[in-house]
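Below sits the subject:

***
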Amino acid sequence: MENRIYTYDCTLRDGEQGEGISLSLEDKLRIVQRLDALGVDFVEGGFPASNPKDIEFFKRVRELPLEHARIAAFGSTCRKGVAAAEDAGLADLLASGAPVVTIVGKTWDAQVTRALQTSLDENLRMISDSVSYLKQRGRHVVFDAEHFFDGYKANADYALACVRAAAEAGADSVDLCETNGGALPHEVAEAVGAVAAALPGQQIGIHCHDDSGCAVASTLTAVHSGATQVQGTVNGIGERVGNTDLLTVIANLELKMECTCIGRENLRQLTDVAKFVAETCNISVPAHHPYTGSSAFAHKGGLHASAIARFPEAYEHTRPEYVGNVTRMLVSELAGKASLVAKARSLGIDLANYPETTQQILEEIKQREAQGYSYEVADGSLAILLLRHLGQYKPHFTLESFRVIVDDREDTGALAKDAMSEATIKIHVGDQRFVATGEGAGPVEALDVALRMAIGEFFPQVDQMELVDFKVRILDENVGTGAITRVLITTSDGVMRWGTVGVSENIIEASWNALVDSIEYGLARRELALR
């Protein structure tokens, strides 16, 4: 395939190193599945054996039925003075079971002598032996040439010797890392061109950081100069000011440079993937983000709005539907209807023949979004809202009241983790009333236990539903403890996962609303054959 550019995502490793970003194990697994469906070629999972979460990740990810993406484990070359076959770090990479191993090695002579405190020749030995050993063990090997562009400026011959050592040892891809984000696109072009000339036939990759605001431009320039693999993170999250935004790069390569990355059909998922990963990270996609932001194709000026209907190319550099976004007229009440119909269809709900109802749903969604709701990763709550408007939703139970008590014993010390919660709920199922009390480590777990006790006799399928993630976001930090709180809950029945959302000034009430939606959707999904 001509102009095939391979995509390498490092959201789960480099992205999680961004300030304020923390992903649970379930978060990471869901992101892997979404990137696989998008058509990303490689997904970097993290450092095997570096922490319990990553150890468990590499075990669990092997159980996922991935159709395209290959999982990469990240580590370093062997240590100085240690043979690759005896290096503990390389052993951990192999033990992870990942089919792809990415190892980072020094290519800046100053880093070798000052950071590694070893000789330039020993560093070359470490690179060559590590790559050769991993290849002998049957792994696809990516060599990340750390600080390559600083190294090329300082000592071009040595930097090239490092990547040549990796290539001659059998590296499947030599990826040049613009580690501190300071190089400009023309400097990247020169260095990548030099590597391409020195290593004909070798696959070259590019990994940029955005400290000078040039990560995307430098990545595209690298492709123009010979790179055939691009690294980045979803939405550009990452250390300091972030990494290359892989989604923006993909869109530019597919739409502007006649390259193939994930294919035009998968490109339509781009906006949904951006929002999914952002919400999973408990952040928002910036409204003005290229291609995937809510304002990327929004028009407010009268001249723009009137011209779009006749000549959209005048104010839209590409068609928003190509990347799964929509043109938005900020003064139009019709904006978003087609997207809602398509989203409903993906959930197994047909809105096509209900234009008036669809408009009513849109108005309610707008009102709820103003209150703090977000349905980007809350398909369960959205489906219930749609069914309610269509008259196809009947609650399986109704709440009379609930009460939550948290008991913590001060004499065990301020740092002790022995607080317990007790929840009592009064529930009606049909014409029957039930009172149940549950206990848990926290109030949400206690409410969940009590609810299941109350309705389990009537709906035994709730035993198959499990809360796998719980996320809280404060929407207005300036209000302090009186701020609106949004709670997102992820539930699994062993076959699929779904998200639900609750919003309130009271975190317990927001949690209860999300919890009820999670159970209600799980029950409705089976009865109505929803996706």
Observations:
- The longest helix spans residues 507-528.
- Residues 128 and 165 are 5 Å apart (CA to CA).
